[in-house]
Amino acid sequence: MSGDHDHTGGSLAARVRHVEALLQQRGLVDARELDGALEAFLTRSSPANGARVVAEAWVDESFCDRLLENANSAIDELGLSMGGGLQQQRLKVVANTEELHNVVVCTLCSCYPIALLGPSPTWYKSEAYRSRVVRDPRGVLADFGFDLDAAVRVSVWDSSAESRYMVLPRRPAGTDSLDRATLASIVTRNGLIGVAPV
Amino acid sequence: MTELFTSGARVQTSRMDPPHHTRLPRYARGAFGVVVECEGAYPRPDDRARGLAAVPEPVYSVRFAAGDLFGEGDHVVTIALWESYLCLVDEEVR
Lengths: 198, 94
Known about the structure:
Chain A is α/β, with parallel strands linked by helices. Helices cover 47% and strands 12% of the residues of chain A. Chain A has two domains: 33 residues, no CATH class; 148 residues, Nitrile hydratase alpha /Thiocyanate hydrolase gamma (Nitrile Hydratase, Chain A), CATH 3.90.330.
């Protein structure tokens, strides 16, 4: 019944509101406290975080190695976390190379590293993206205006369990003299999902 | 936590369509793949969704060739799957 696992459905939102109302009624949670926790999480969540991680990996080779080996402890070095107020989620960073391009999806719902990428774009949650990108990633990338060289292999990551994936894009040519902040400013959310080059 | 599979092991996913929630995507049912790594151990959503006691179970990144999933495509798809969705494949049989 994996097809029923849909976080975008209105019925689930209604159920969440119902549970929230019950919790408040019984004095188990405070509405303001809940709003505060959500707001704090969303304020901290931004693609600027993912961009900072990428810029650091581009300028510091040993950080890049640590990031690909254990992303949770590497982003901790930058004061970032996959905690988000709830449980710590495992983060896996996958690097694009000259020969390999990575792209991320959650075919069952819309899982995604919100802390590093900010709230997910609507298209990421759409049936069209979720069902097509696993079957025809080159076609989907072309729809995004990204014509990947036919010689580059494509690797799709389906976030079907408890890990979240982020793409480490290739550093563009001619950026050797740029500092971390400027490098971070050229990294886009779509680049971190893998549907655009940087 | 003892893990049944090591990196590089050839596995096949379950062909069953359970009457309850599961996180084995339908497009990957009965498919042959290769274990990339163990991602850790987590309670099975199949059990949690039914209110059953759920003990942590290893989850693996498993890589599939698009051709094995869809009959076409030159890419690979890596899916995170609970151990009980998988069984080891004897190379000789395949």
